[in-house]
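Is this the right way to post structure tokens for a design question? Let me know if I should format differently. Anyway, here goes:
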């Protein structure tokens, strides 16, 4: 079938000019005729609205910011690409939620603040630290949820569903002396640190 479609595509383009037909279109017609449909008429299309009410869209998205745009398109009976286009018009952007290991209670926050305050009063230890970065790397690395929000909004924090999943925290500390200028942190060095932790 592909060989015949290729030949017919070439013949159409020779007869009517280059770019008149594409092979995939000719293959589609082959399949249609093969099923017994000899009609050249357009099939009836569902009459979907060509506009989205931005107020209605905003109401839906603010009621449930984690709603999937395909579900909204189905609810409004419009094309998915139209919903995405109108999301931009109403100033909504898709941001990934920020994972936190778990939500802290007021007591835990107060305790963390007191410990940090005490450490700064006792000596110059924290003055030695210029930068610190840490990254949780989960063995079960599933996709992070996202939600639609206004452009100026910052992502909301959501606790991880499973606090006890297997993971490792990689931490990088850098003093005021900086990193060793003769060494680069390569993927091999990074992998070695992961294995050692």
């Amino acid at each position: 079938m592909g060989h015949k479609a290729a030949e017919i595509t070439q013949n159409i383009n020779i007869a009517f000019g280059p770019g008149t037909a594409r092979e995939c279109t000719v293959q589609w017609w082959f399949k249609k005729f093969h099923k017994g449909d000899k009609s050249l008429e357009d099939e009836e299309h569902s009459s979907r609205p060509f506009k989205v009410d931005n107020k209605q869209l905003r109401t839906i998205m603010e009621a449930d910011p984690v709603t999937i745009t395909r579900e909204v398109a189905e609810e409004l009976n419009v094309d998915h690409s139209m919903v995405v286009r109108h999301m931009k018009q109403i100033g909504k952007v898709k941001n990934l939620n920020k994972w936190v290991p778990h939500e802290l209670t007021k007591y835990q926050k107060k305790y963390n603040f007191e410990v940090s305050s005490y450490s700064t009063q006792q000596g110059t230890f924290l003055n030695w630290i210029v930068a610190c970065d840490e990254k949780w790397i989960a063995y079960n690395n599933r996709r992070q949820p996202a939600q639609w929000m206004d452009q100026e909004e910052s992502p909301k924090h959501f606790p991880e569903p499973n606090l006890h999943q297997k993971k490792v925290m990689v931490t990088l500390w850098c003093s005021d002396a900086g990193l060793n200028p003769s060494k680069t942190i390569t993927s091999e060095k990074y992998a070695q640190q992961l294995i050692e932790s």
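Format looks fine. Someone answered above. Worth noting: The first helix runs from residue 2 to 16. The radius of gyration is 29 Å.
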